[in-house]
Structures are given as structure tokens and as C-alpha cells.
Amino acid sequence: MLAGRGCRFVVRQKTEMALRGALSRVDQLRFLSQGAHCGPYPARTHNCGSLSASDDGKKVVLTGWILPERKAGKHVSFFPLKDSFGATQLVVNRDSPAAPLSGLTVESVVLVEGEVALRPEKQRRGGVGDIDVVVSNFRVLNSADNSLPFTPSDVSNIANEDLRARYRYLDLRRTALSDNIQKRSKVAHIARNALHDEGFTEVETPVLLRSSPEGAREYLVPSRIVRAEDDSPVFYALQQSPQQPKQLLICSGAVDRYYQLAKCFRDEGGRKDRQPEFTQIDLEMAFVSWGADAASAARGWRIGGAEVRDAIERLVRAMWAGAEGVTLPSAFPVMTYQEAMNRFGSDKPDTRFGLEISDITPYLPATQREALEREGEILQALIVRGADFISASQTAPGVPDTERVLIDAANRTSWQRSSSIMAGLPVADDSVCEIPSLKPGDHMWLARRTKLAQGGSTPLGRLRLQLSQIAQEQGSLTLPSDACNFLWVTEFPLFTRADDDKEFLAHGRWSSSHHPFTAPMYEDIPKMYEGRVDEVRGQHYDLVLNGCEIGGGSVRVHDAAMQDHIFTNILQLEPTEKAPFEHLLHALRCGAPPHGGMALGFDRIMSILCKTSSIRDVIAFPKTSGGTDLLFRSPAPVGEDVLREYRLGYLQKGNSA
Amino acid sequence: MLAGRGCRFVVRQKTEMALRGALSRVDQLRFLSQGAHCGPYPARTHNCGSLSASDDGKKVVLTGWILPERKAGKHVSFFPLKDSFGATQLVVNRDSPAAPLSGLTVESVVLVEGEVALRPEKQRRGGVGDIDVVVSNFRVLNSADNSLPFTPSDVSNIANEDLRARYRYLDLRRTALSDNIQKRSKVAHIARNALHDEGFTEVETPVLLRSSPEGAREYLVPSRIVRAEDDSPVFYALQQSPQQPKQLLICSGAVDRYYQLAKCFRDEGGRKDRQPEFTQIDLEMAFVSWGADAASAARGWRIGGAEVRDAIERLVRAMWAGAEGVTLPSAFPVMTYQEAMNRFGSDKPDTRFGLEISDITPYLPATQREALEREGEILQALIVRGADFISASQTAPGVPDTERVLIDAANRTSWQRSSSIMAGLPVADDSVCEIPSLKPGDHMWLARRTKLAQGGSTPLGRLRLQLSQIAQEQGSLTLPSDACNFLWVTEFPLFTRADDDKEFLAHGRWSSSHHPFTAPMYEDIPKMYEGRVDEVRGQHYDLVLNGCEIGGGSVRVHDAAMQDHIFTNILQLEPTEKAPFEHLLHALRCGAPPHGGMALGFDRIMSILCKTSSIRDVIAFPKTSGGTDLLFRSPAPVGEDVLREYRLGYLQKGNSA
């Protein structure tokens, strides 16, 4: 009975069973141990992407997946044989011993023996497309089921996303997807070599860390460890980033330059195109500068950390050169946060198109201008003209807190009298507002803003992107497909006024714009100690590509007194909130060098390099946007008996929050 | 008030305060923004390990940690200045502007300017030891506290392990430890390049996976996801190894050869020298052989997967060549499991010394021999003689189930009559047992064993290691410090008789010796289907170095019917236990290529390469053997309000298991 459950054979189940019926038991066993996919088979001589015209006449052994047959006349069949290197066209004479290949299910794994034959000249496609392999013999290494959930080679008929996610091992057989996975490996290799050549040391930091007060987005890991004091359950938390370990590492002096392709974990609760686990190219450097030298300032980089900028630019250039064959400029442009917000209404401006925002406050009648100034505000305008955007502007729904004014000869200098967004600001009925560049036919979009920009974008900035999107859909705007508009954004406000007092680290109206370890610009240190907190700029830098933030970093505070001042006086942390930072404060007191670093979002970068619409297409086994894994069917319930080992139990329904 | 909490200055607190008292408020702010470690400072021109005789006379700027002063006469002081590259000796004339260096606390971070001076010829130590730097000026970048928990540079007085773990950032400043961390990076780099050059594709597999029935050692991760059916909490589990994802990846055909330096997680509950998280060099290859060719068999490798063996040997050779400058042999010896157990009583034999075990059953009187045979057992002996081991044997406490017999002229052929371990086996009072090699003065250790070896070691195998340990302590045995006795162990039993019926996958008396995906040797497939389960050998291979298992792997089952047979008929899994493997079974049915792979324990390998007694010394931020992290103070309690978000609560005491 047991023997009957053995290996399956060359052709199909029915044939196999018939065959087995005719064999003696001894023969069956011999067949089982020698046959098909349960015993030795010859080694392949080549892969399916390596043969070319120069191999004409060679005897070869290939292995791979058999794709759908194409019959040519009565006697000949063609089959593509595919592996991860490419596809070779097999030629099978239907009178030959290889004829039963026709009976195989598509996606079966076979080994073929045959001879390379140069194609007729007109049918040569270059490389492996110059040749066929005329099959003399074959062996099934593993047959595929007759009914697969979908056929990965049928690119004209791609299954729905859930089905492909559930059977990811089939979807990964699609060349488009496997190319991404292979490219990811290639780029990671380039990145590591580039950093190695720059003298960076790879260090693995703990994934199992301590839960932190900013824990809203962290994953907990219950432990079986019994806490001696009170026998209560204790937890690790998965690292959200290696920020603290890497700073401690640099403080130790064990390495001068650290890097890691770090797996990070964040519970994003289904945020679009985020993954519960993601990969960062993370680095940190000791002895980075704490201000700019003349050469750096001349490039617009007026903060410290130029060493990080240079290392990152060399790294990114190496990645683009290796992956795309593209030579990026030898220095990326730099823009301050305020300039980015003023001109583009965004801290990650897409500079692939114009449509810049301008401050028209100076042109306003004095009554309006002075009233605005009293409120600490300015009036900005996005002036739209020309074929690129005017139609988009006509159809745009607009965004809240913006107003569209259609300019004609009558209202060109008087629109301000009836502007709704200016309502409540005193203006004379005969006031004149002479904006030199404004012309009849223009659309002018208006929005008010605080004088010092705040946040990540303004209403006009969001409108600008909306217009660009519509114009691209309408076909009036085409962005160059190979544009690589890298841009550094610097001099962010170090602290942000917290709207919600419950926000972490925001007891005292202020929270850190990035994280509390970011250093102020040294010119602004006196302001920080004087309490002019809103004017303090941080030594933070973001790297932006085509309007997408691909990385960020900063020079860190390395002075324990300054760090303590930020924790205690500005962020007004409670002692329990400060507790998780005590070891960092102590490390700063043990002789910490000046240091700074950066993290690049590797998934995002690969998504850009592979031109995919989602980062899921550059991850071998991604989760859905909801955080579930349809392949491994996780997360999944766990028995109460298992939970009991952690001294945990299920809450009764109704008890849950 | 705020301004008073600013940066600290050049020398010490007292001086600083005195200075500040004398300054006007404006001066204070100016000083704050320009001074010390809160503003720009010159870039270093060299690191502390790079200068040499050829730099004599150069003006240099160095940064680093200042180590204890050594005074030479009235006028000159020497200070080592250390960074992660090395240490340069500073010379300070106590009349110079650099004199206040003496007042600094040890481990403070300073920047010095000075001139390279060649040492007198007799004091040259080579490299950076050929020169001093005569300091003209210095600046404190960050002063260290007066009272550090311990002084890392004081290698004659190393603090206790808990203290060092708590202040790991100080401990990592010890050169011995930072050397390990840097070497780890170097070896990882070599490994990745070696695998890349072999055509391996690096793929990241999910860390957040599904909890499995073999979950006793896994870590759970509660999610905030609400399960639609019943609103019950659901959990991820941290990967214990990428076994299933990597097999699915190879089944997909997306890559032909996969590798990853994979972070794995296992709750070892305080097993000696294990870590909750550890790193494996993990790889898998498609189309590996399923049996040996003649060349492979001639090397003793009679199973499939020779491609994996070759790739691993090339990898290991590259690592040893790069890290140690050692050329390893071009082929590592191979030994079957049975031979290893017979000769060394271990499935990971330490072959750096002899002391082999022998089977003395054939020499026994027929009555004893036949009685043993009826019980399916053999009698083994470890015969000890000579200076190496005899004293160790005299003092060894021995291990259970062994018996020591001191051989003299009287009992040389009659010891079997009174042997306690043979008690109950019939023997005549005048029986003779003539073991040719046995001599008076020998110690003979005896133990009985099943005919086919089982498990990882035998009593005599454990005794052999005990004798070696004692002999080394006594000084009668010295193992060569540079020995690299690599050894492959193959042909393990595929299934193990389960002693404990509760053991996972052991309902039917059998469990998988390694994991249920390991393929049988093709010659043994008929036995497997016939139910002669104990005779089936697996296509599994372990790599052993000096008695330590550094890796293991196997050729996998790629036939769905065979895999199902193993799950259902041999391991007798319940449907719920089989459920987590359904996607693997389905992947095998979708056209899976023959495949096999291996994982090397990277932490263990680094521990061997760095000659450390614990893997903690090759990990930047390790946890204690109990699984706690004294630096980050994890694991830690979590509030009930946080747990409520996961619909979990604390069990009342008394409810816990």
C-alpha cells in the first residue's frame, strides 16, 4: 500500500497507473528508485538564457519550466523552456522520442537533452533568440498540476491581486516580478560595496528592543521571561529604526562609520503602500562637521553633516550607475525648507515641472497687507497660464483653503476687493493691486499662510500636485520618464508646534519635527536656550527624488546637557518618558564624538528603479496594505494555552478598547 | 535661566563656570554658539591609525579619545589618542598652549593640531608606533564624566560582565571587542561577495511569519488587526529560519540560487551561549543533484546536493582566506553519520585528536555476543593508553552508562566475566575475550549501544570529550591552536524514534531528525514506502569544525506525493498540524524544481574566527544568556491600556500556567 503512494512518473497520472499495473512489485521499486524526480538525473550543461549562435551544433542538457506548445505544421512543435535566466525555444519533432513533451502540463519542470541549432537568419532575435534546441530526449523532473490557480506566463491575462498574493510562488514566476527581485539583489550588492569602499563597517543592531513611549506604531513581542519583582509579563518591541543602537555604537568609538541594510518594523495600520516590515540603508558617521565650510555653503548646504551628504551622493550615484547605467550629477541641488515651502508648497518638492508659487503680499494694498502682517501671515499665489496647466486648472476641484480667480482685463488689478479668501481684511473699494506678471486669461489660485512655513505641505502645494496630475492625465503635461530630480532639503524647523496636546513629546506645545536627537544649527543654539523655539532650525536633511522623500537624516546632539535641555525644558518630558533615553544621555557623558547619519528607504528606491506602482512589487513576500499575508495566512489566532505561557489572556468582548 | 544650561566648554566644569561668571550675557551667547562641541571645528586630516614614518614633519589634525597621561620628566607628557583605527602617541610640552590637556578627564573626545615627529630609532614600533604627534593646540569636542562606570582602556582590570553589558557602549571601546565587530563586518562582506560571484541572488524573506505548530521556541507578535470572523486577536510569529519562504522562492523559479544573511529568532529559554536573535548565512539552490556521481562518491559524498557542498566549501575557503590568511584544503573530508557515531560517539566529531572508539562485540565470548545481538546491541570500547590521556582517565568522573576497567595481566582476557555493564548476559566462568590490541596498563571504558546509532552522541562519545577536556587542563594534551578540522557528516537517519509522544510531529513513534522537508536518499525510497522507516537515510549534511556544528542543510523533497506521504503516513500529522504546510505542498504541485540548501551559523563562525569563548563577544548589542538586555533594559512591562489595543489582558496570578 505504501509503495503505491510513491513518486509520480514521466507523463500523466493515467499512463503512470497503467504502467504500474503492468509492473511486478520488484520492478515498481526499481522504477521508483531510479525514475522521474526521485533519483539522480544528469546535470544541466547550460541555463536557459546562456546559449547563443556560437553554440551552434553543441549537445546540451537544459532544465526549466515548460511553457505552452506552438505547433508548426504536422511534424514540429515549439516549446519555450524557461528558467530564472531566460527562455530557450525547444524544437520537438513529433515523430521523435521527445514527442510526449506535448502531453505535459504547462509549468512542469523538465530536463531536456538536445542539440543547439542556429535559426534561419530572418528569425534570429539576438542572444538566445538566435538559436533553438532540437530535443532528442527528455525527462520530467516534476510535473505540474493540470489546474493551476493561474498561468504566470500568460501576461495578457494577469490574475487579480489577491489571487496572486495568495499564490505568490506562482506570481514570482512572472518575469516582470522576478526581474525586480533580481534587480533588488543587484542594487543591494552595489550599495554594500559602495559603502564598504567608503570605509563603512556593517553592524547588526538588535531587532528585539525595548518598548518606547512613542510606541503607538511599534510591535510588541511577549517574552516567557518571568520578572523577578512582581512575576508580571514582560515584552520586547521590534525596532522601528536602529536610531538609538547606532548612536550608541558611534558613541562607543568601536566603528568610525556604521552601515546596515536594516529590517525595521512599524505598525502603520494600513497606510497606503507601507509594509509592516521594511528595509532601510542605514548609516551613521563619527566626527561629522557641525557647520558648513565655504565650499559646502557655496552649494547651499549651510548645516553640518556634509560628510554624510557626500557619502550618500556617492552611494546613490553608484546605485544609479550600476542599475540604470545613468550618470547622475556630481552634486545634488540643495534647498532650504523655507524655500521649498515658499516656491513649491512642499517639503519634498517635485521639481520636474515649474508652476511655482509666489508671495504676492508686497503687491497688496497697504490696508490688506498690514492686516495680514498683524496676523503673521502672507498671501501666496499660484499663477496658471499656458497649455500645460490651464485646462487642468479649469477642471480642478481645488483643495480646501484655496480660491481660484479667473483674471480678465476688468479684474486684473482689482480682484483683491472681492476675494473671499481675503474677506475680513480691510480694503478700499477703489484699491489697486498691480502684480506685474499677471495677465488676462491667467488663473490665479490664492491661499494664506503663516509667515514662517510649517508642516509638510501647504494648500497651494497640494493644488500644484493636483494640477500636475490632471495635466498628465489630460496629456497636456508629460514628465520625462528618465528624470532624476534629486534634491536636498535642509534647515527644517527643529520643533513643531503640537496641535494635539496628547501627542508624544508635546506637553509643552512643542514636539520634535523629526526626532529629539537632531541637533540645532549652531547659529540657532542661543535662540534655543533663550526660548525662541520656533526660530530654531535643525541640522536635518531630507533627500527627495521627483517629489518623493527617499531618505532623511541629521547631525545629532552629542552634548548631554543640550540633549537634556531638549528633553526636559523644551519637550517637557516626564521622568518616566525620559527613562528610555537615560542610556543615551549617559553615553553622551562618556565621551561621545560629534556624529550624524541618515537612512534611505530601500523599498521605495527599488520601487522607483523598477518603475512599479507599489513597493509590494519589489518585495519577494510582501503583505497586503492591510498588513495581512495571504500566502502564509498570517496573522493568525493562537490558543489560550499558548498565551498562558506568557501570562496573558484574551480580553472578554466588551472589555476591549 | 535657559541659557545657563548650554554647552559645556573646553576644560572642566569649575573652570567653565568661573569663565561664564566673568562673561556678559552677550559674550556668553557668542561663546555658546562658537565654542567647544556646539559649533564648527576643523576636519581631521588623518585618523589615529594612519600616520607613519613617512609623514614625519607633517602638520596634522587628529580627533579621538584621550587616554591616560604618562609624564616624562618635568616638561613633557605623553597621551595616547585613540579612535577606531588605532592610537597615536601625543607629545605635549607642559609649557605649551596644549598643556591643559592634562586637566581633561580620560575618554574625553578631543581634536588636536600638531606636527608629526619621528621617534628616536630605538623607540620605533612600526607603523603608527614609529611616530609621535607634538601637539601645538587642542580643542575639547566633548568631555567625559569624571566617574565612568569603568575604564575601557584599562585592560588589566576588566569590569564584571553585567556591568560591561549594561554600559555596552563603553565596553565596545575596548579594542579587543571593537576588533571583533570590525572583523564580523569584513567576513560578512567576503561572504556576500563570494556568494554573489557564485551567482546567488540575495532575497529578503519575511521576519513576520505565521505561528507554527512547532511553536514552542517561537516568538509571537500580537497585531492590532481585527479578525473579521470573530473579532479575536491575531498574531504574527518571528521567523525561526527562512526555511519555508526560501523553498517557496526556489519553487517559484524567480531565482536559481538564493542567499541571505538572515536574522532568525528562537526562544531558547536561556540555553547556554544562544541568543534570542541570531544570524544565519542561508542559501538554497534549484536543480541540485539527487544522488552522487562517481567523482562525488569517491570523496565519500554519496547523497545529492554536491552543488551545495561545493558552493559552501568555496564560501568557507574565501572567508578563511580573507579573515585569517589561511588556505583551507580544496575538499573537506566526508564521513557518514554511522561512521562518526561508531568512531567518535558524536555526530559532530572533534577530529583534532584520536582516542577513537571501537566495536569489541566480535571478540566477546559467543554466549555474550549472541545475547547482545538478540537485543540489537553492540559493545563499544574506548581504550586509553599513553601519556596523553591516561591521567585524565584516572581522574575522570566518567559519564552514566559507561564502565571503566583497568586492564592488567590477570584480567586482560577475562574482564568480561565481572563487567557490570555486561551483567545479565550469560558468560562462562572460564570465558576468554582476546582483544588483540589490549595491553596491561590500558584503561578500557565500556558502553553498550543499539546496533544502528541514534541521537547526537553516545556515552563513550561524551566520555571522549571529557577526557580531552581534562587532558587539556592537565597539560598532557595540547590541540593545535590553528587547527581547522572541517568535516562533512552525511547520511543521517531521516526519522528518529520519538521517546516522548508529546513531541511535535511524533504521533506515530517517528519524528523528523532534522525537518520534514529533508529528502530520503533515493536508494532508500522503497524502504520508506515499505515502512522500514528506521533504515531510511536522509540527504542531509552537517558541516562540523573542530567538533562544533557550524551549519547544516539538505536536499529537499520536491515531490508533493512524497511530502504528503511523510506528513500523513510517517509523521501522522493531524489536518490542523498539516495546515501550515499546505502552501508548500501546493507549491510542489505547481512545478517545483529539485532543490536543496544550507544554513551556516554566522555568530558561531565569527566566535571561532575571533577565538572568543562566547558568541556575545562577536555581537554588537547581545542579550544575556537569560535573554535580557541590560543596556536597553528589555524585555519590560507594558501598560494594560496598551495590551487592550490587542484585545489582550494580564492573567491574574494563580491563573498562569
From TrEMBL, chains A, B:
The keyword Ligase applies. Residues 184-622 form the Aminoacyl-transfer RNA synthetases class-II family profile domain. InterPro entries: Aa-tRNA-synt_II, aa-tRNA-synth_II, aa-tRNA-synth_II/BPL/LPL, Asp-tRNA-ligase_1, Asp-tRNA-ligase_1_N, Asp/Asn-tRNA-synth_IIb, GAD-like_sf, NA-bd_OB-fold. GO terms for cellular component: mitochondrion. Pfam families: tRNA-synt_2, tRNA_anti-codon. Keywords: Aminoacyl-tRNA synthetase, ATP-binding, Ligase, Nucleotide-binding, Protein biosynthesis. GO terms for molecular function: aspartate-tRNA ligase activity; ATP binding; nucleic acid binding. One of its GO terms (biological process) is aspartyl-tRNA aminoacylation. Belongs to the class-II aminoacyl-tRNA synthetase family. Type 1 subfamily. HAMAP family: Asp_tRNA_synth_type1. This is tRNA synthetases class II-domain-containing protein.
